[in-house]
């Protein structure tokens, strides 16, 4: 340790480990170092040694401000309480703020349609993940809501498009359809149907009329081809 370190520790001990005679009438003996631990106790009792806020710029600013002093937007200050007490108070206020929106939103949400995408055996221990890449898009011009997704296993070469009207009382034609890529990128009709088969890695809407997809060659070999394609929604 350097002489500077020793001096720092000595100054700390001299300042913080002085006895506090004014606290002798309380249970036990207290030292100024208790000023740290008192904030961490999960109790509702007042602090043994409340902090001195005299000269604090923030408190002086609030005291001199007529509008901020009584503003409901400022969290109240409890100089006599521990951090645990303040934390519980804040959690209670946050829960109160969130409860009303949760009730309103919860009551406004209802099921518009139910579509059966696949069935699995009830005897299976673990349910396989068959639903992948859900991407949402809202066409505000046509008031249509889209969901892009793929189904694994026997339909990896297909991308599914679900379309619903934002007004749940109205329906649209072709509410759900599938686009199969397969071997449509083959250079000639002479190529084997299995030689250039593609599956969808990812798919997003580019704009209201265009879907961008990343395709992967399905053959089991190194250097699989990747294709970035933009498809018109029509």
Automatic annotation (TrEMBL):
Pfam families for this protein: WD40_APC4_C-half
Domain Anaphase-promoting complex subunit 4 C-terminal half WD40: 136-234
GO biological process: anaphase-promoting complex-dependent catabolic process; cell division; protein K11-linked ubiquitination
Gene Ontology annotations for the cellular component aspect, listed alphabetically: anaphase-promoting complex; nuclear periphery
UniProt keyword Cell cycle present: yes
InterPro entries referenced in this protein's UniProt entry, alphabetically: APC4, APC4_C
Residue stretches spanning the membrane: none
Keywords, ordered alphabetically: Cell cycle, Cell division, Mitosis, Ubl conjugation pathway
Domain of life: Eukaryota
PANTHER family xrefs: ANAPHASE PROMOTING COMPLEX SUBUNIT 4 APC4, ANAPHASE-PROMOTING COMPLEX SUBUNIT 4
Name under which the protein is recorded: APC4 protein
UniProt organism field: Cisticola juncidis
């Amino acid at each position: 340790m350097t002489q500077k370190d020793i001096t720092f520790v000595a100054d700390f001990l001299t300042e913080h480990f002085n006895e506090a005679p004014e606290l002798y009438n309380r249970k036990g003996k207290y030292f100024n170092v208790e000023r740290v631990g008192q904030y961490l106790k999960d109790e509702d009792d007042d602090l043994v040694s409340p902090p001195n806020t005299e000269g604090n710029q923030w408190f002086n600013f609030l005291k001199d401000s007529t509008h901020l002093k009584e503003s409901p937007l400022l969290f109240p200050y409890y100089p006599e309480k521990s951090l645990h007490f303040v934390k519980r108070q804040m959690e209670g206020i946050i829960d109160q703020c969130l409860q009303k929106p949760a009730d309103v939103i919860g009551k406004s949400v209802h099921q518009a349609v139910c579509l059966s995408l696949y069935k699995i055996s009830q005897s299976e221990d673990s349910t396989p993940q068959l639903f992948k890449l859900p991407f949402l898009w809202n066409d505000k011009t046509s008031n249509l809501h889209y969901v892009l997704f793929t189904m694994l296993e026997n339909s990896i070469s297909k991308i599914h498009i679900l379309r619903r009207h934002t007004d749940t009382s109205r329906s649209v034609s072709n509410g759900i359809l599938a686009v199969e890529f397969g071997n449509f990128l083959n250079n000639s009709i002479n190529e084997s149907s299995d030689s250039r088969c593609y599956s969808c890695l990812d798919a997003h809407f580019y704009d209201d009329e265009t879907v961008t997809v990343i395709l992967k060659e399905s053959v089991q070999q190194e250097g699989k081809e990747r294709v970035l394609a933009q498809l018109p929604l029509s």
